[in-house]
Amino acid sequence: EVQVVESGGGLVQPGRSLRLSCAASGFSLDDCAMHWVRQAPGKGLEWVSGISWNSGTIEYGDSVKGRFTTSRDNANNSLYLQMNSLRPEDTAVYYCAKGNAYDLRGAFDVWGQGTMVTVSS
Amino acid sequence: QSALTQPPSVSGSPGQSVTISCTGTNSDVGSYNRVSWYQQPPGTAPRLIIFEVSNRPSGVPDRFSGSKSGNTASLTISGLQAEDEADYYCSSYTASSTSVFGTGTKVTIL
User: Fold this and answer.
1) pLDDT digits over A77-97, tens only?
2) Are B64 and B58 in contact (CB under 8 A)?
3) B-proximal residues of A, 2-31, CB under 8 Å
């Protein structure tokens, strides 16, 4: 079964850091771009970041640029999101999503169940 | 990057059809056939139902169809069923090599 599973969420104070992980199974990570999408409580979806199959292209949404870093380890079928200088407005469910293309132009065809990140003092 | 514009809500009776619009700009929807649609029932993760404007992934009923004209994409749900009640989001690739989602539309079955 093709699936992705996020982990690493939790409660963190403003200004601190957190690292999310996404474990892929049932497919090879070499074959696709990967993305992070978040959803604040009661709000809509927001694209956070995308990384191409070989890490050659990495892009971020304006609200996280300069604070978040996306990386991947294809050998271990894993995706990561390093989140620094966290703000209360970063509070959201963070989804890992598989792209259906090698580059960032594809749709998001497999989603995890999400991991909750709460930024609060 | 501003969110794509969708109507907050649409409703219809079982068996009827509803159409959800998704309006962007010539930097996203208008320039790329990389528009996709997602269904999100309450408390669940989103699910891809349309990619590249009008293509359905395997397992998605043909009641769901997509189209695009200029800067506006549309999702039509024909023959509404109770299980179609959910939030729906469009998404587009952009000229900045990023993606952007729509504001979301709640579909209610009357």
Assistant:
1) 999 999 999 999 999 999 999
2) no
3) none
